[in-house]
Amino acid sequence: MSAGQETLKVLAERFDDLLLRWTEAQSEEGVQRTDVFSKKEVREQSTRLLRAFLDGAKGGDLDDPDLSTESWADLRDALREVSEERTERGVTPTQMATFIHALKTPLFEFLTDRIDDSKALAAELIVAARLVDAFALHTTEAFIEHREKVIERQRAEMIELSSPVVELWKGILAIPLIGALDSARAQEVMENLLEAIVERQAEIVIVDITGVRTVDTQVAQHLLRTAAAVRLMGAECIISGISPTIAQTMVQLGVDVGEVLTRASIRDALVHGFNKLGWDIQSIKRPDEHAGRRDGRGGRV
Amino acid sequence: MSFVPEAAQHLETAAIKTERDVATARRAASRAMDAIGARAVAKARFVTAVSEVARNALIHGGGGRLAVHADERAVYVICADDGPGIDDVDAALKDGFSTSDSLGKGLGGAQRLAARFEIETSPKGTTIRMASA
Amino acid sequence: MSDAASLFKVNGVLLVAIREDIDDTDIVDLQDRLSNAVNDEAVDGVVIDISALEIVDTFVGRVLGQLAKIAHLLSSDTYVVGMRPAVAMTLVELGMTLPEMRTALDVDQAMRRIREGE
Question: Which of B19, B104, B106 comes nearest C23 by C-beta?
Answer without folding.
Answer: B19
